[in-house]
Design goal:
Belongs to the non-flavoprotein flavin reductase family. GO terms for molecular function: FMN binding; riboflavin reductase (NADPH) activity. It holds the Pfam family Flavin_Reduct. By secondary structure, this protein is mainly β. The chain is built from three helices and twelve strands; from the N terminus they run H-E-E-E-E-E-H-E-H-E-E-E-E-E-E. The strands form three sheets. It has a seven-stranded antiparallel sheet with strand order 3-2-6-9-10-5-4. The longest helix is centred in the first third of the chain and has 8 residues.
């Protein structure tokens, strides 16, 4: 079987999105209290980066209308979403005024917003932002972490699923 690899000129955004969608990712809520309002979004590009110093990263579209508000917050909350949070993820991608309707959250003293029943809850500050094509790579420094048991929400091929941790053999 012969496989043809197209040149860079053939890498249209629809084709790239389809290819990138074959890689399953977890989903986090990124949220803070800004000017007395809860502001947040869902990101499927969360990655651990470093233990010393403790850093994680998210990638956000440079066209995001929410990021300019979030980046003004003293602290950002990241919540690793559980397998039952599919509807919440869609809600966080919906109209701004309804993103936190009927969502149980905790707001820390410094304004990080954390979803109460998430798998992990991280309080962070912006360490660095790096322009990366049509996205911005945001490195976040961790200041507090809490976790609970459960199955993670997985985003794959534009849909949601779940994954359970494998037990060591």
């Amino acid at each position: 079987m012969t496989i043809l690899y197209p040149t860079n000129q053939d890498l249209d955004p629809a084709r790239l999105r389809q290819a990138f969608g074959t890689f399953p990712t977890g989903v986090v809520a990124v949220a803070a209290e800004v000017d007395g309002e809860l502001v947040g979004l869902a990101a499927s590009s969360f990655t651990s980066v470093s233990l010393d110093p403790p850093l994680v990263s998210i990638n956000l579209a440079r066209t995001s209308r929410t990021w300019p508000d979030l980046r003004r917050a003293e602290r950002l909350g990241l919540t690793v979403l559980a397998d039952h949070h599919g509807p919440l993820c869609r809600q966080l991608a919906g109209p701004v005024e309804g993103r936190f309707t009927d969502v149980d959250v905790t707001v820390t003293e410094r304004g990080a917003v954390l979803v109460d029943d998430g798998l992990a809850r991280l309080e962070t500050t912006i360490h660095r932002e790096v322009k990366a094509g049509d996205h911005v790579l945001v490195l976040l420094e961790l200041h507090a972490v809490d976790q609970s048991d459960g199955s993670a929400l997985v985003f794959h091929r534009s849909g949601f699923g779940r994954v359970s941790a494998l037990l060591p053999s």
